[in-house]
Amino acid sequence: MVEVVVEVLETDTLCGFSRCRAPLPAPGPRGGRPFAYCPERTWPGGKTCKQLAAAQDALTEALGSAVDTALSAATSTFTTAAKQLVDPLSEVLAAATQLRDTLAAELTAAAARVEEAETTAANERGLRQSAEETAAKAEQDAAAATEATRQSAADAAEVVRHATEEVEQQKLERDRAVAAAQAADEARADADLARAHAEGVAATERDRADAAARQVREERARTESTSKAVASATEKLAATRAERDAARTAVADLRAAAQQTQAELANARTRADELSVELTKTLARVDELTTDATTTRETARQATEEAVRLRADLSRHTTTSAALRDVLRAPDLAPEDLRTRLLTELLR
User: Which residue ranges form the domains of the chain, and what is each CATH number?
Assistant: First the structure.
């Protein structure tokens, strides 16, 4: 085996092979030149750091630039592009998440307020309809009570009129009886038989007069009862009118509450419109961020293509490195032959 010796003076205490850069041991107790490469470390294939550094120098000389430098530049470019892509996407995601949470909370609250207002309006409409029905029924009862009172008064007046007419009739009959008695007294001599008849007629008339008086008393009692019924109906009418007034007051209160509810509903709709405008603005902002994300994705795509190209170059360099390792592992090669084969592999 032929070792390619490249002497490199290093003032640092790290290994001169760029892939190693391990701390170097100090010179022995007897002194001597400091180590430039790891004295004992070996890599796959049995190559030392010094041998691989020589091969790396030959590769650099053939290519004109170091492979590690190109790979590091590609890696840096890819990392920068990835960061440029991740940061805007993270910002877009955070803004979209915050916007979604805010809009969901606002829309949920607005929907709850609208639903509550609609429920309150429906309840108030039901109460208003019930109050109106109660007021209508009260007015109907009042009208019926008024009609019953009027009819009772008319009936009482009719009964009184009939009783008065009968009393007047009894008075006329009594007057005629008195006249007949006077005539009987004047004709007493001729009225013995007629007296008995007149007495019988008088008794009958008295009975009829007593019956008429009893009927008048009964009619008066019925009139008093009717008056009491009229008074009770009047009181009931007054109570019904009071209930009607209270119902109208309740209806007025319900109408005022309904107007207030409608105002709150209008405010809720206005707030919903404002939220819609804010949502439109936010969606426009999302579109802008999406455009930025698209631009960033394009940059990332270009960076990915560059990375693919660099990976292809790396693969090619890896293949070349494998061929170079095979050359370096070849035993018993003269330095000139080793250099020739290395250059041959590098120029393929």
Answer: 65-346 (1.10.287)
pTM above 0.70, yes or no: no
Which amino acid, one-letter code, is at 210? D
pLDDT in tens, 147-168: 876 786 687 678 668 767 876 8
Q: Is 299 exposed, middle or buried (0-12, 13-18, 19+ CB in 10 A)?
A: middle
| DSSP-based three-state secondary structure for 310 | helix
Cα distance from N-terminal residue to C-terminal residue, the chain: 25
Residues 6 or more apart whose CB falls under 8 angstroms from that of 233 comprise 145, 146, 148, 149, 152
Q: Which two tokens stand for residue 285?
A: 């902002």
Contact of 38 with 20, CB cutoff 8 Å:
yes
Q: Which of 30, 25, 27, 34 is nearest to 7 (CA)?
A: 34
CA angle 216, 222, 224 (to 5 degrees): 105
Classify strands 47-48 and 42-43 as parallel, antiparallel or unpaired: antiparallel
- Residues 304 and 297: their CA atoms lie apart, in Å, by 10
